[in-house]
Amino acid sequence: MPDVTARAPESVGLPRIRVGDTGDDAYAHPGITPLAAREGNRAAVAELLDHLGIFAFAVPGRSDHGTVLAVAAEDRARVLEALARCLTHSPGHLSWLQESPVRAPRPRPSTDPRAWHAPADAIGVQVSWYRTDPGGHLLLGHEYGCAVEFWSRRGDRLVAPRAGRGAWSVAAAGPNVWGAGRMFSRFVSDHTAPELAPPLATRPEFLVPGVEDIDFPVDAVYTWVDGNDPAWRARKAAAQGVVYHEEAASDARFLSRDELRYSLRSLHLFAPWIRNVYVVTDDQVPAWMRTDVPGFHVVPHREIFRNPADLPTFNSHAIESQLHHIDGLAEHFLYFNDDMFIGRPVTPHAFFTPVGAARYFPSPNRIPQGPVAETDTPVDAACKNNRALLLERFGRVITQPMEHIPYALRRSAMAEAEAEFPEAWARTAASRFRAMTDLSPTSSFALYYAALTGRAQPGSLRFAYVRLSAPDLAERLDKLLEGRDHDSFCLNDTFSTVEDLEAQQELLDGFLGSYFPTASPCEHTGEERVPWPNPNR
Q1: One Pfam family name from the record (predicted)?
Q2: Model's pTM, two decimal places?
Q3: Which regions in the chain score pLDDT beneath 70?
Q4: For the residues of 447-478, what is the DSSP string, one character each?
Q5: Helix (H) or strand (E) holding 58
Q6: pLDDT tens digits, one per residue of 55-73
Q7: Of 56, 90, 214, 250, whose CB count within 10 A is highest?
Q8: Do 242 and 342 fall within a single domain?
Q9: What CATH number is associated with residue 407?
Q10: Is the residue at 320 inside a domain?
């Protein structure tokens, strides 16, 4: 029998380590991501089948996490024999697939003899090698495995043993064709690094656009400031403007806890469908950041502000009012504050519908009633200003601010809002510090404007908000890390001081480094990194 272990993890020198309290062994993989785990499992099984000369093709399966390969049912015995040899050399996990299981099949270690007891109605087998980072923080398990389905031959057709997202049957004869990686997972787009989601050999019957497909590009935009930068602090001190509320100029608004590094890691790990990433700054670049990575751009304020006299600015509302002027920005984009994170793999469908409508996430809180008052916080004042303008224009009253979830925005909606409300927009852009007259362009106004013009609708995500000044911060962070069950979370504070930062930093360093152990392509690591997405695809 030919060598069938060439791509299994142990054969390429990956060590196995015990992960956490689960008792699971996993292969330690530098630079591991969910997509890398998925592709590693698929490649090992595909190479095995290729060595055996078994004809196989990729199928759009039920899950976005793993992959599915179809083989003819008459090859079942040969496939299982070869898998047994492979998993003896490089132990992993397997589970048996059933047409309509009562519950998800339980994976067992391949070293457990019970793992190989197939139920009578098994229609396939799923194989995985658990992966983790060298520190053992991130466990990528059986959900990223490769399933092998046994398709029955009926005349000149091969028929699927269970429902998937594609055709029920394919022609038994004829060659395979190549299908883009996004045909087999919604976590993949045409802009995902091709080594993480290569084209797969499949059948022509699957190469048809589906009603649920998102085929438009989605970009990500960050705003970032380093409040410890002496040059920036000098500009701030020299700036003219009246600060009406202590929160507007609070040092906490400008503290950098290195969140940006880890938020970018969260995108790299859990949203690999993003096309381009833009970081908007006041001529600041973190020491750890690379600026030569395709698909990653640092954008100075002066490149997006239409009125140069509005600079320098220390008002996030003003900066956000200009984001849609970023050159090359996609129509659909996510706007992140640097304290927002993606907590687990999400698809673009979490933020946009297949026809392009943006999703927004209202907070259970309420905007205070009445006109703007001097006692209002900057957030409440901006919400009230938003409400007044939208009521005047559309005759509808907004009552809720938005959660601190990445804001799904339409570039065209922001441009229209700026054109329709030029005075309020220009006044916001010209406010060097947060002012009572501000709008909150991205976190509320543009979202509701898009909704009222038919381009946005409410959505729902599992989300957590953690205030860094909370006395039980350590317990809250531990719960987030242990569960890893939130789509997004925000680590936010408004009134912390530099002294608070020193006390919080040790907790944050441990939490963020454990939650997001894999460096993104835009970090200096001493090693070449995979490019961000491929913007030319």
Answers
A1: Stealth_CR3
A2: 0.92
A3: 1-7, 10-13, 20-23, 101-102, 240-256, 494-498, 526-537
A4: HHHHHHTTSEEE----EEEEETT-TTHHHHHH
A5: strand 56-59
A6: 999 999 888 999 999 999 9
A7: 56
A8: yes
A9: 3.90.550.10
A10: yes
